[in-house]
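Subject — a protein and its fold
Encoding — discrete vocabulary of local shapes:
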Amino acid sequence: MKQHILYPALFALILATSTWASEEHDHGHDERPAHNESHTDDHEHGHDGHEDEHAEDSHADEHSGHGHDDEHDEHGEESGVELTPEQMATAGIVVTPLRQQTLHEVVNAPGEVTFDAYRASKITPRISAQIVARHARLSDHVKRGQLLVTLSSVAMAEAQGELLISNREWQRVKKLGRKVVSAKRYAEAQINRQQAEARVLAYGMSKPQVAALLSTDDPAQAIGRFDLYALQSGTVTSDDFILGELIEPGRVLLDISDESALWVEARLTPEDAHRIDKNAGATVRIGNTSLRGKVVQIHHAVDEITRTQAVRIAIKNPGDRLHPGMFVDVSIDAERQGEALALPLDAVVRSADGDWQVFVEEEPGHFETQEVTVLRSVGGQLVISGIAPGTRVVTEGTFFVQSELAKGGFEIHNH
């Protein structure tokens, strides 16, 4: 009886256990996709995080690149040079708007700086005299009419005495009038007075000196002293005399020259001189300095020794950079070669990386570098491109600007 009850109960227990195990298996299988979804979500979330990090890196790169540009801009600003008006004047810096220029073939020749004879004068006595006082010295700048030398002369003393006597007689006769004195005496007194004054003027007295002497009406003032004055404004370039020295007529005591303008005597072969026209432009170079001038005279005679022909060039001398006796190189314009943007040779220099460049005035006293392309050289000029017409470019004093740039430790960049 007990066995009949036990077997059915055991069978029911086994069946229940089997059913529960099957459900557990199915439930476990159903949860696997959930696990996979969780993994996928984690992977996708990780990928998104990677993209975020990449975006941040890109932003960092952009920021870094932006920083580099800023640094480049700041570095570009450092390529400038600031100069005061005093510095520019001292260095002889000239800024010129870039324009189309007529180009010429050139004739090159050696030359020598000389005085402009039309701007020079010599101070010399007209009679024998002794030097009493010096009022100017070598290298002094004098004005027209300035007192230079005081002289004393026996001949002048005699002439001064005659002037005082003749003047006194003339004043007496003139006061009496024509009705009292004869016409002959009146004329003689007048002529003697005029001749006496003309003599002292010819000997070297000035009209103000004559007037001062006559105003005294004192024969004791006829001591023979007189002064020599500057005939022009300029610089005393020689003063070959000493105090107390006895000098003869025609002896040169001082040379005065206006050196703001000079001549350059270029020596050319007759064939080259034939290619040159009067008023042709010319470039005069000495060291790093270039100056423009023009042909004013062409000599017709050929030198017997050198077999060359002289061409005279008039040139301005800003800053007193040239002096007579200096040897220079000259380039004179000959045949025309058309028009182009061109600058003097000294206006275009090499940058640190070997490129050609010029200095551009962006604002008064502020200069920036700008690279250009040199196309060719014609007549002492460089034909360039890569820069707009009208740009204000340093044409003289370029090396000073470049040295100031180097002093600041700046590297030259293109704009």
Remarks:
- The first strand starts at residue 81 and ends at 82.
- The chain is about 35% helix and 35% strand.
- The chain has three domains: 1-77, 81-116+259-407, 124-257.
- Residues 96 and 320 are 21 Å apart (CA to CA).
